[in-house]
Each structure stands twice: as C-alpha cells, then as structure tokens.
Design brief:
Residues 63-83 are annotated as: Disordered. The structure is a single chain. By secondary structure, the protein is an alpha/beta fold. The chain folds into two domains: 1-29 and 41-60, no CATH class; 90-327, 4-Layer Sandwich (Purple Acid Phosphatase, chain A, domain 2), CATH 3.60.21.10. It has helices at 2-33, 40-55, 108-117, 132-137, 143-157, 210-214, 216-242, 250-256, 259-278, 339-349; strands at 89-96, 118-125, 161-164, 180-181, 184-186, 190-193, 199-202, 283-286, 293-297, 300-304, 313-317, 323-327. Helix 1 packs antiparallel against helix 2 and helix 3 runs parallel beside helix 5 (143-157).
C-alpha cells in the first residue's frame, strides 16, 4: 500500500512541475511578443515563477510498479459524467412485424433499442415474430433474442396491451386464437380504432400471398435464398457500423430493383385494401412483404409496418391519431462489449 502511495505522490509532483514549467514558457513567449515596455506586474509574476521552478527539482522517475492492468484515461471531460438519458417517446399504438427471432438476420439489438425508447398504450405484434421455419432447420437463439421476448413480456406486465397476430413463419400460434400467454393475447386478426375514428384491420397478410398459399415449396426455396442474402447483408453492415454509417439493407435494395417483385407488391397492396373494404374498415395494417409504407390505395388506407430484418421500421400512432413510419437505423444506446473484451481493450489502450 505504501509503495502505491509513494508512486502516486511522485507522479503528482512530476505533473505539477511540468505544469509550472509549461506556464512559464507560455508567459515568457507572451512577454517577448509584447511591444513597448513590459508590464511590471507580468515581469514580477514571471520572476517569481522562475524562482519557484528553480527550487523545485524534477522528481526522480518512480520505479516500475508490479504488472497490473492499466486503465485508459478518459479521452475528454464528458466521460467523467454519465451520458444524458434519451427521452422516451409516448405513442397511442405501435405495430411491429417480421422480427424473425431465431434467425441470424434478425436485428435484435436495434429492436431492443427501439423498445427501450418508445412506449405505447397498445402494442401489436403483426406476425413472423418467431421464425419457426428456420428453427426447424437448425437451432439459433442468442441472448439478444431472449432479451426481446423478455422485454415484450415486461411491457405487457407493466400495462401495455400487447396483441399477437401470428404470420406464416409462426403460424403454429394461430391455434391459440383468443388465449393469453403472459398477458399477451393471441388473435388471428384484430381491428384497431384510431383517435380520429378510423377502423384499421390488423392482419399479417400471408393469407393473401399466392406463393405461400399455393406453392409452398417455392416459398421455402425463396426463404433459403433470402437467408443467404441476409448473411451477406449482416457482414456488410458490420463494416458500415464500424465506419459510423447507419444500417442499410442490401436485400431490400436488390428486391426493389426487380420488376416482378414490384408488381407483386402492388398486387398484394390492392388485395389487402379490397378485403379491408369488404370487412367495413377504413384501411389495413399488415406486414409480410418487408416494405414499410403508408399510402392511399383505391380510397383505402394501406399501412405496412415493415420488418426488423431489412428496413428496421415500425408503424406508430401518435396521441393525436396521426400514423407514421419510424425507422430505427441508428442505436441510441449501443450494446456494451462483454466484460473480458472491455478489460482487454482498456489494458491495450493504457
């Protein structure tokens, strides 16, 4: 203990002497640059500092301490204080879909960050929350995916009305229509009434996808090819994140360049709004095609909340009843590195 105390005193003394000598050099330079006769007070201060510096010899170098992990000094003064917390946005309703937990393409960290900074009275999970297709091929379930499930359950316990509308990738949950699991209610479909009185039919949308319904083998094949593209996309965005760029979807870009894909999306939108009109609703909220959008289609409101694989988007309703698409391509609170990596990084920096 005495060894470390002496070493600390030596370091502090060296720092003080260096500061005095640096100040002396700066003030001497200022004095020489002044035109005319020097200021008497400044000359007196310089002479006193010179005398003080002369009587304070530079301390001897302290002996090398035993090997201990060095701590990196803070790069700026702001690191002495905790960062300012980001405000939590309050909404009347939030719609999320196509999270695809259980796949490597799921952007769970971005979704956790979104759920942390956004609250709502109602939260709709509009299908493909858990990807049963991929989990049947091979088990993949990292801690971040478990954290998403726990976060959703916690919101339900704290008073958010959570409604789960299954899709084609988690269709096994449709058999539990009307039941509640951990305060989360399962519904095959739902109707949401906005603050302005609009009735919106909430459904995943796979039942209006001809490929899913009539060529299931083609849907599975397309899903496998899609998984390969998402793997490329994941490595691509890892490099972008290190360079400070926001998330960008390679798979979405490729999909929207194909004319047949654009025609398919247009047919899907018309089929959805026609069914919403037949049910006496003013519009529809769906997912499934991974393309977030709000627009008028044949006099009906078409809303797609996007996904958390490509677009990282959600549909929200403000307290005034306005519907908006929110994109969450930048993390407000990036996840911290594991403790072992943090200690190793600190030692290297020191």
């Amino acid at each position: 203990m005495a060894y470390w105390l002496n070493a600390a005193i030596a370091v502090i003394g060296a720092t003080m002497v260096q500061a005095i000598r640096s100040a002396l050099g700066i003030l001497s330079g200022v004095s020489h640059r002044l035109r005319g006769s020097p200021d008497p007070e400044l000359s007196q201060i310089l002479s006193r500092m010179a005398a003080l510096a002369a009587f304070v010899p530079p301390p001897a170098e302290p002996p090398a301490p035993p090997a201990l992990p060095a701590l990196a000094p803070p790069s700026d003064a702001s690191q002495h204080f905790p960062p300012e917390p980001h405000p939590i946005q309050q909404y009347r309703a939030i719609w999320l879909s196509d999270i695809h937990l259980g796949t490597a393409g799921c952007q769970a960290d971005y979704l956790l960050d979104f759920l942390k900074h956004n609250e709502s009275e109602r939260l709709y999970l509009v299908g493909d929350i858990i990807d049963g297709w991929q989990l049947r091929r091979g088990w993949y379930w990292p801690q971040s995916h478990n954290d998403v499930v726990q976060k959703l359950l916690r919101k339900a316990r704290k008073g958010t009305e959570v409604i789960y509308v299954p899709g084609n990738h988690d269709e096994v949950a449709r058999q539990f229509d009307g039941l509640a699991f951990g305060d989360i209610t399962v519904r095959e479909e739902a109707v949401h009434v906005t603050a302005t009185g609009k009735r919106l039919w909430v459904v995943h949308g796979d039942l209006f996808d001809g490929v899913v319904q009539h060529a299931r083998w083609l849907a599975y094949l397309g899903d496998s090819l899609y998984t390969v593209i998402l793997a490329m996309n994941r490595h691509f965005n890892r490099v972008r994140a290190r360079l400070g760029f926001p998330y960008w979807s390679l798979s979405q870009y490729l999909k929207h360049q194909v004319k047949n894909a654009v025609n398919y999306i247009s047919s899907f939108e018309h089929a959805m709004v026609d069914e919403a009109r037949r049910r006496g609703c003013d519009g529809v909220v769906c997912g499934h095609i991974h393309k977030a959008e709000i627009r008028d289609v044949n006099g009906q409101l078409y809303c797609n909340d996007g996904d958390w694989v490509e677009s990282l988007s959600a549909l929200v309703e403000t307290m005034e009843g306005e519907l908006k698409i929110v994109y969450w391509t930048m993390l407000l609170d990036p996840p911290q590195a594991p403790p072992r990596k943090r200690r190793r990084a600190a030692a290297i920096t020191g």
